[in-house]
Specification:
This protein is of the alpha+beta class and about 425 residues long. It has four domains: about 80 residues, Uridine Diphospho-n-acetylenolpyruvylglucosamine Reductase, domain 2 (2-Layer Sandwich), CATH 3.30.43; about 120 residues, Uridine Diphospho-n-acetylenolpyruvylglucosamine Reductase, domain 3; about 90 residues, 2-Layer Sandwich (Alpha-Beta Plaits), CATH 3.30.70; about 90 residues, Alpha-Beta Plaits, CATH 3.30.70. Helices cover about 30% and strands about 25% of the residues. It is built from 14 helices and 19 strands. Helix 11 packs antiparallel against helix 12. It is globular, with a radius of gyration of 22 Å.
Length: about 425
């Protein structure tokens, strides 16, 4: 293939994978024509430019943790691996900022920052594999988003390779950067459809003096919901406020209660002690048990609790609902699955209304009709509360039977226009994101 020969000239023959070695990069049955590992930003730009000239799609790939999200690709084209771009370029402790290449793993980045008493206030799942660029492109986050927000809240500068191979810089390297359009945020959550993130500058926080994670057990969803409302209306400032049902709680190493409320606090030691004490007095009238201290390892397990609940999954859906409706949504969704003879697992960042639900594959071949019925009813429940839902993972028969993404309406039409301006040839991860972009 002439294109692959040109790519070998750019990155070196050892960094272009073909043949059977492409198998780890197959996307839902779609095998890429080649897998390319550029080692510099200029090489990324050259690879994208050559693919665009040849009319071959480019799929940006970091750690691969979110590659199942989205509509099934019609053609994988060239998989563009960013794992060789893994340097921490700058760290300015006095400015609380850092600039890193997109392929650095999240665990590696945090370890470097924590060594100097700082951290990036994101805690996505699977930090050992997830890369900085992938976390930004998928807008991944974890329990601490309750207090610290998502990638949009920490990104202050970005370098992106556009669909024609140009390198574009947006934002800056200082927090007080307010001039012009906020270009960096355009690429957060765009799943590689608008540009390939190659570098990012983020704002940091000092490590807290103390951080504590506690759990409170409940035997009824409505009681857990009442406790969430009491917490949200109180003067406590948790950094995490999660609800998990029994299967997800087991995956996270929690108690076997029907539903568990997991609350995190950080800050000065005395402040954290006071908040834990106040938590106990807040949840007791709602039927909550005595708060139990959790090991620090629970943080990472909590971030993917529902996804990890079953060895064999039939589907995963994410739902956004009002925080006050989270417990009701979980209880209703559990009943919907049970009515179809299926077992479900639920976890939620309850304070922000972000819910993850998984269905267990019952037997070697789960009933696709039952799975689709459950997912459709879950989506309808999210819509009824003014929210939305996304099929985060499912087998091809399920994805072909219902939309992966919700109808984005007017916002979708705006996104289509942005895509047409930035990627008129539809080169970057085409057709996989909202509104077909």
């Amino acid at each position: 293939m002439p294109l692959l020969d040109r790519l070998r000239d750019i990155v070196g023959p050892a960094h272009v994978v073909t043949g059977v070695e492409r198998s780890p990069y197959v996307i839902e049955g779609c095998t890429p024509e080649g897998v390319v590992f550029p080692g510099t930003v200029d090489e990324v730009a050259a690879v994208v430019a050559q693919a665009a000239e040849a009319g071959v799609p480019v799929v940006p790939w970091g750690g691969g943790t979110a590659m199942a999200v989205g509509v099934s690709p019609l053609r994988a084209g060239i998989v563009l691996m960013l794992t060789r771009l893994a340097a921490l370029l700058e760290h300015e402790p006095g400015d609380l900022t850092a600039t890193a290449q997109a392929g650095i793993t999240f665990a590696g980045l945090q370890a470097r920052l924590r060594g100097r008493g700082q951290w990036l206030s994101l805690d996505p799942p699977d930090v050992a594999r997830a890369t900085l660029g992938g976390v930004l492109a998928s807008n991944a986050s974890g329990p601490r988003r309750h207090l610290y927000g998502t990638a949009r809240d920490v990104l202050i500068g970005v370098a992106v390779v556009t669909a024609d191979g140009a390198v574009v810089h947006g934002g800056g390297k200082v927090v007080k950067n307010v001039a012009g359009y906020d270009l960096p945020k355009l690429f957060v959550g765009s799943f590689g459809t608008l540009g390939v993130i190659v570098e990012a500058t983020v704002k940091l926080r000092p490590l807290p003096e103390e951080e504590r994670l506690v759990s409170v057990s409940f035997e009824r969803f409505e009681d857990a919901g009442a406790a969430v409302r009491a917490l949200l209306g109180s003067e406590l400032i948790p950094n995490a406020l999660d609800l998990v049902d029994r299967p997800s709680g087991a995956a996270a190493g929690l108690s076997s209660a029907v539903v568990t409320l997991v609350v995190g606090f950080d800050g000065l030691g005395q402040q954290v002690d006071w908040q834990v004490q106040q938590l106990a007095s807040l949840v007791a009238p709602c039927g909550g048990g005595k708060p139990a201290m959790l090991p620090s390892s629970t943080w990472e397990r909590l971030a993917s609790a529902a996804r990890d609940a079953f060895d064999e999954r039939a589907a995963i859906m994410t739902l956004s609902v009002l925080p006050m409706a989270v417990a009701e949504t979980i209880a209703h969704g559990t009943d919907v699955a049970r009515a179809q003879g299926l077992t479900s697992a639920w976890s939620a960042h309850a304070g922000v209304g972000y819910v993850t639900a998984a269905l267990r594959a019952e037997g070697a071949r789960p009933d696709s009709t039952a799975v689709v019925t459950v997912l459709r009813q879950w989506r309808e429940a999210a819509h009824a509360g003014g929210g939305h839902a996304c099929v985060a993972w499912a087998p091809l028969p399920v994805k072909s039977a219902l939309p992966v993404w919700d109808d984005a309406g007017a916002a979708g039409r705006v996104m289509q226009r942005i895509k047409a301006q930035l990627d008129p040839q539809n080169v970057l991860n085409p057709g996989r994101f909202v509104a077909g972009i």
